[in-house]
Amino acid sequence: MSLKCGIIGLASTGKTTLFNCLSKSRAPAGIDVGGKTNLGQIEVPDYRLDKLYQMVKPEKKVATTVEIADIPGLKKGSPGKNSGNRFLADIGQTDALIHVLRCFEDDSVPHAEGSIDPLRDKEIVELELIFKDIETAEKKLEKYKKAGKGGDKKAVHGADLMSALCDHLENGQRAADFQIDETEKEYLDDCFLLSAKPVLYVCNVDDESAVEGNFHSDNVRKALKNENASILIIAARAEAEIAELEHPDDRIEFLKDIGIEEPGVNKLVRKAYGMLDLQTFFTIKHKEARAWTIRKGMTAPQAAGVVHTDLQRGFIRAEVMKYDDFVKLGSEQACKNAGKLFIEGKNYVVQDGDILNIRFNV
């Protein structure tokens, strides 16, 4: 399952530094508007996969991954230019956004707006997304109006809905906050609105503020406390130094020095994963223990299709073990003996942490 998170923000916020931490890349930082989007993959850290690998001792361990895109830094007003249009087009290709807000002072890295103000920066970026969505909504409105003149009642309702959306956006509000009922979602599905995408706000702070944050990140929290927003504090420069250390003991020591228990990027990956409404199931074979990504609510045949299309096409049943049962009992045979290996059919909805053995015939 191909899923992509886009890292966005103004120029000089630390986006590429964060991208390098997440993807273990070495993309050059400081690329401004007009640069290319950096692409990479991030492994989703999961202690359960580590445990299964330790217990079963297969030849290899394969973590589930999410694609990540470091989209060139935006400057105020830039989407009117070709580079800005590319910025918006690249955002359109993502499933969720990681919006990096600069919450650190550093005279050697001048800010494009001349001062550090993460709330102002957030507004600049989000308004550009909203402006693009207004353009999209207005085009859709005209199509509905034209179809409605021929007596198409559905088109008339679509026009009313799109007109209300235009008013909502023109008031500076994100499409994500536009209230519609379940039956009306089809009117917006093909609009691919940029400001409707789920967002995780990352407050990029200085090393000394890695644990508690600082004045700037406090302001972000206060401003967004009523928006049910996901916010994470990360010291990207320190995280980059940690990522470059080869020995795990050195990384642990570095983390202790700055007062945190695990790399902030691990928390970010998990948050992004959850933000996309994803979950994990596992397969265990002699040669590998592997984690697989699915959307919540997927049935066993759909999950089988993530492994291979043949498994979904010829699906017969799924043998299911719960992670906690497997760890407690110690093996597949022990789960069978204890009645903890369940035979499930096509209607079974896979749960997070399930261990599946797919039976199929093609």
Task: Output the keywords.
alpha/beta, 3-stranded mixed β-sheet, 362 residues, single chain, Rossmann fold, 13 helices, 12 strands, Ubiquitin-like (UB roll), DNA polymerase, domain 1, 41% helix
Q: What would your notes on this structure say?
A:
There is one protein chain. 35% of the residues are buried. The protein is 41% helix and 20% strand. The longest helix has 31 residues, at 118-148. The protein folds into three domains: 4-45 and 60-113 and 198-275, Rossmann fold (3-Layer(aba) Sandwich); 129-195, DNA polymerase, domain 1 (Orthogonal Bundle); 297-360, Roll (Ubiquitin-like (UB roll)). A hairpin with a 3-residue loop joins β8 and β9 (288-295). It has helices at residues 15-23, 47-56, 82-92, 118-148, 153-170, 215-224, 236-244, 248-258, 264-275, 300-307, 309-313, 323-329, 332-337, and strands at residues 4-8, 38-43, 60-62, 65-70, 96-102, 199-204, 230-234, 278-284, 288-295, 315-322, 342-344, 354-360. It has 362 residues and is an alpha/beta fold. The strands form three sheets. Strands 2-4-1-5-6-7 form a six-stranded mixed β-sheet, sandwiched between helices. The two termini are 22 Å apart. Residues 79-83 have low confidence and may be disordered. α1 packs parallel to α7 and α4 (118-148) runs antiparallel to α5 (153-170).
